[in-house]
Amino acid sequence: MYRIPVNRKDSQFRKEGVLQERLRNSNMRKQLIIATEPSHPRMSQEWLNLEEIARVEVSSEDPQHPIESAFKQSNSLGWRASRPGEQTIRLLFDEPKDLRRIWLRFLEPKVERTQQFTLRWADSQTGPFREILRQQWNFNPRTSTMEVEDYKVDLRHVLALELTIDPDLGKNQAYAVLAEWRMA
Description:
Structural class: mainly beta
Oligomer: single chain
Strand content: 35-45%
Shape: globular
Number of helices: 3
CATH architecture: Sandwich
């Protein structure tokens, strides 16, 4: 039998045996959940090979961490900006694509910061762009070094997909990093 922590209010019930009796007579089905690291999306034919079907525009790029490294499965850092501040990565598809899933992984092992990213799409390579989502994440070297986002979407005839990353909410001191970006 599991020992369930009780607060001081429950001590009265514990003395009377009421709480233990309630727990013993419960019909609740339960199972312990084991905490795990986020799983990597399985590589399969479903992921688009972006090098073959799109070109990419990027606002800056560290030569040691080029944008194409974010589109390949690996344990590398992926893409990293060459300068601090807000960055944009824009994918321009050769032919319209229907997208059902967008998967992103960001890493920050060293600096405590709050990042915001915005994902937009267009059915033309020149826009107008429509926002899909805007997300903030707090990185902390001791407790939160990785952000993984897995979105189910229903986007039809996409010709452009734009990811804007503000790595430190306008402070312009942190470098944007995108470890992996997949879509299907």
